[in-house]
Automatic annotation (TrEMBL):
One of the record's GO molecular function terms: zinc ion binding
RING-type domain mapped to chain residues: 81-133, 279-317
Start and end residues of each Lon N-terminal domain: 364-624
Keywords, alphabetical: Metal-binding, Zinc, Zinc-finger
Protein name stated in the entry: ATP-dependent protease
PROSITE patterns assigned to the protein according to its UniProt record, in alphabetical order: LON_N (PS51787), ZF_RING_1 (PS00518), ZF_RING_2 (PS50089)
Native source organism of the sequence: Eremomyces bilateralis CBS 781.70
InterPro entries: Lon_prtase_N, Lon_prtase_N_sf, PUA-like_sf, Znf-RING_euk, Znf_RING, Znf_RING/FYVE/PHD, Znf_RING_CS
CDD domains linked: RING-HC_LONFs_rpt2
Matching SMART domains: LON, RING
Organism lineage string: Eukaryota, Fungi, Dikarya, Ascomycota, Pezizomycotina
Length: 659
């Protein structure tokens, strides 16, 4: 018999909930007519009595049969189209995760895709399509959609299985089911359209009564045809709506063979479909299955890794233009449901393996290392990632805590080591010494926003979190570096205040704030000739407030040198300068300042606020003596000189051609 009684879950755990809600059989009235049935339904909050022990065996038998029915209905529903209720024919997987028949969507003349059988007004903006599933209706980009090959292989396998296990022709079986369904519908029409305040718990109560009392279906089961085949064949004729359920009568004692076939059917289905639900890349059970535009299905992680190295499909080598939209592409709901229904243990094991692989070999104090440039805490930074190894690293960081470390490339150490650091070979496994390929100090970055491009490249918006010192580093199997780090903190406020008081009190003779040697780098020759050692004594004698005031004076002057469009872009990207925060202001100023990487690295090493303020002020004075950005020579004069030089060059070339 059939009724509009949808199940909340498509797994065997429904049986446990079903048994827990069973009332005592003595409390279930007999069915006489529709009104009596509604009056006899107990209230949802009424206390239920425990099932007598003597009926436990009968309840177990009923639950065993119900589990077979639940499995059969769950599998049949997964393979039904949510629009037409037929088994999927030329099934297409949409970016929202739903799978529908190709015939259930129609393409209009302007290239948009609308629901078949509905007005074109449901259509969408040009280049978009609407999911035909009424509970979804998500808009996605329309593209050349190919048949889901994995899903169609599962449907074909089910058809072959039905043909091999059935002894009755499908037309005869469907005719018998149609007759019984029509008879039941005529006798109990209220089971289809029960509405009102009590409809929700009424449907559940009626379902429980049908499991305990099997008096409404008079025609016996066809002994040689399993429930799964019956449901699937019934759906193939379009007589089994997607939201309806089909409940079979309890087998009679002489129909044990049929009951045994129904119980063995899940194992038979698993053996037939196991191969179709394996990933073609890793040859494991599909995890978060994602269907490509060419119709092939892979694990999401396997597909992402493959697209990092090539935009071609790993199976058919067709070009895939979906890397930029893959993050918003939902997993294939049908294939996901099949893996969880048929292989629940393996599916959970695959999830655990994926989590373990994500953090394989990672120690608590290890982070991925990106060798690029210098960043500062609390200061935004923007990166464009294009190398495959770093694309993998960024994706894993995004799926984890969204943090990684960035250090500067050690090209500035070429003179110190007597060799070009860019030629260092990192292909050998083992520990890599800091300072050979990268600088020892770096910054932990937090990913704020991630943008995937169609080519597979990634745009990142990040912000610095804290400084760190690299202790050791190793190469990950995917090519990027993993570093064991030591997080660095600034000195305490008490020590900071004592250092300031000592330097100011000594009239600049002491330089206690330079604890890491960050200010002992070589200076510009013009700077030394112009200021000398007296400058450093004067700088050390200034208080932190006076150093902050010096920076406040320079920032408006620096903005006056910039074009209005450049100032607007800086304000949008980095915000206004943190004038009231002495811990962040030096970082922000140095990030905007046109200086070399050596000075930027010295700023990163400094662990006192006072040393960072002095370093910023020293660089402000050093930059001021250069002609190209001197405050005494307006920027328009420099631009005019460049224009005159270009004009003279063109005149010389013209004269040379005439001669």
């Amino acid at each position: 018999m059939a009724g509009n009684v949808p199940f909340d879950r498509l797994a065997y755990t429904s049986i446990e909930l079903l048994l827990n809600s069973l009332p005592d059989r003595n409390d279930i009235p007999e069915i006489t007519d529709h009104d009596a049935e509604l009056d006899s339904v107990p209230n949802p909050g009424e206390e239920q009595m425990d099932t007598p022990l003597k009926e436990l065996e009968e309840v177990v038998d009923i639950a065993e049969d119900a589990s077979s029915d639940l499995f059969a209905r769950a599998l049949t529903r997964l393979l039904q189209c949510m629009v037409c209720s037929y088994p999927l024919r030329d099934g297409i997987n949409l970016p929202c995760g739903h799978s529908v028949c190709r015939q259930c969507i129609s393409t209009e003349g302007n290239g948009t895709v609308a629901v078949a059988g509905e007005k074109p007004s449901i259509g969408n903006a040009e280049g978009l399509m609407c999911c035909p599933v009424r509970t979804c209706r998500k808009l996605t980009a329309s593209a050349s959609m190919k048949v889901d090959r994995s899903l169609m292989a599962v449907v074909d396998c089910m058809l072959r299985l039905i043909k091999e296990t059935s002894e009755v022709s499908i037309p005869q079986l469907v005719a018998g089911h149609t007759e019984r369904l029509a008879q039941y519908s005529a006798n109990h029409p209220w089971s289809y359209d029960a509405e009102g305040d009590r409809a929700a718990h009424l449907k559940k109560y009626v379902l429980l009564k049908q499991l305990l009392h099997t008096k409404t279906v008079e025609t016996a089961l066809i002994p040689t045809f399993p429930h799964l085949c019956s449901m699937f064949a019934f759906a193939a004729q379009g007589r089994f709506p997607y939201d309806n359920d089909l409940i079979f009568e309890r087998p009679t004692p002489d129909s044990g063979q049929t009951s045994q076939i129904n119980l063995e059917m899940p194992n038979l289905v698993r053996n037939q479909l196991e191969r179709e639900l394996d990933c073609p890349i890793c040859y494991k059970l599909l995890l978060y299955p994602t269907t490509t535009s060419c119709g092939h299905t892979f694990c999401r992680s396997c597909l992402l890794r493959a697209l990092d190295f090539s935009i071609l499909c790993p199976n058919c080598r067709q070009e895939l233009k979906m890397h930029g939209t893959l993050q918003g592409h939902e997993p294939n709901r049908v294939v996901t449901g099949l893996t969880q229904l048929l292989f629940p243990d393996r599916s959970e094991q695959r999830r655990q393996e994926d989590l373990a692989e994500l953090h394989d070999g990672d120690e608590p104090d290890e982070i991925p290392l990106f060798v690029c440039t210098i960043a500062y805490p609390q200061v935004p930074i923007y990166l464009h990632i294009f190398e495959p190894r770093y694309r993998i690293m960024i994706r894993r960081s995004w799926e984890g805590n969204r943090q990684f470390g960035m250090v500067f490339f050690a090209k500035c150490l070429q003179e110190q080591h007597g060799e070009d650091a860019s030629t260092q070979d990192l292909g050998n496994p083992g520990q890599l010494m800091p300072g050979k390929y990268y600088m020892e100090y770096g910054t932990i970055l937090q990913i704020v926003e991630k943008g995937d491009l169609q080519s597979g490249r990634i745009n990142l918006q990040l912000v610095g979190v804290s400084r760190f010192r690299t202790v050791s580093v190793r190469r990950h199997e995917d090519g990027y570096l993993m570093a064991r780090i030591e997080r660095l903190q600034d000195v305490s406020d008490e020590l900071e205040a004592s250092i300031e008081a000592a330097e100011v009190g000594s009239k600049g003779e002491l330089n206690l704030s330079d604890r890491t040697g960050s200010g002992s780098g070589r200076l510009d020759t013009k700077f030394v000739q112009c200021y000398g050692q007296q400058y450093f004594r004067t700088l050390n004698s200034l208080t932190n407030a006076e150093l902050m005031k010096k920076i406040h004076t320079w920032i408006p002057l620096y903005n006056s040198w910039l074009r209005p469009s450049t100032r607007r872009k800086i304000r949008i990207a980095y915000g206004d300068p943190p004038l009231d925060d002495p811990k962040v202001l030096p970082y922000w100023t140095m990030h905007m300042m046109p200086t070399n990487q050596d000075e930027l690295y010295r700023m990163l090493k400094a662990d006192t606020v006072r040393e960072r303020l002095k370093l910023t002020c020293r660089l402000i004075d050093e930059i001021g003596i250069h002609e190209w950005c001197s405050p005494f020579i307006p920027i328009r004069v420099v631009t005019l000189r460049r224009i005159l030089a270009i004009v003279c060059l063109f005149l010389a070339l013209s004269i040379a051609r005439t001669i």
